């Protein structure tokens, strides 16, 4: 089975969105080796570091309801960014790099980073889900995508959830035998303090914190695995 041919689609031009992203060179940086759980950890770190790149496009894509917003994000990913499975090298692209390389294509890991960054800017609680699939290397986590709990107050997926999977033509959740969910809530800080007399104003240093991983089970999908066959096997 040729996963690229199976999941590729005719994408739209998307030139109207280009001004909403910062310009990047897409230079590679070695992030290290690891398994699928290391990959999801790196995905979280990418979201914390690069969510600012989707600040402007998030304003355009956010809709009046949670479902409409998730549908719009899926539409954007599926129709404007081509799919292409990673080979041995596992590539985690920032949103700006993904959009720059949208014609050549990205895999499920990058779709998940992009969706998570958008949701973070919208203040929407969500999880990165990795799954084992019965029909494809059932012993491994082979796919990753985003799930958005209907209950935004508690984040409990038992109340139901939407999915955002840019690899699929119908945005439906794949059949899986095991799943693991990782919370990607970003840290928030309140900044205020009086300036002491006689002290000069100082420049605050930027602090970033990666959210704790949830104890809920995690799901992975097919696009991630096929790429993940290398990514997760060594480490769509």
From TrEMBL:
It comes from the Bacteria. This is Transglutaminase-like superfamily protein. The lineage of its organism: Bacteria, Pseudomonadati, Bacteroidota, Flavobacteriia, Flavobacteriales.
